[in-house]
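ok so I'm stuck.
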Amino acid sequence: MKPPMLLIVENDPLLLTGMAAILDKHGYRCFLARNLEVAQKAVETIAFDLILLSFAKDPLAAAEAAASLRNHLQSKDLPVIFLADDFDQHWIEPLHLAGGVYCLPKPFEPEVLLDLVDKAFCLPHLAAKKHTPPAPHFAHEWVRLS
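replied:
not stuck anymore, here's the structure
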């Protein structure tokens, strides 16, 4: 069985390659995209298992970006882990409705990223649900969106 394939969308090249190196070392295959255009082309031809989508301050644009990436037959139910420069509780609903299962504020420890990627594979059905998310569960380093 092939290891899971992750799409990582991050405009910072150091963070992008750093995340990929960590995930690759732990058995994940990664496709790296520095912008949404490259990510869009990738989802048209590659079957991914999870999307890691970075954004700065605009959660609505991030939600739209995730929805556009999940607008293909092979990617419509993919879970999304959002990587945010900051976080506000008002972002939970739009990110959840766009397929988000977790939001991880930057900077983060590599172990936290690996933990959330592992958790996302235990809960893939969450990304397909389109309902109001439950009360948020805050860990000290991440936010569950669904």
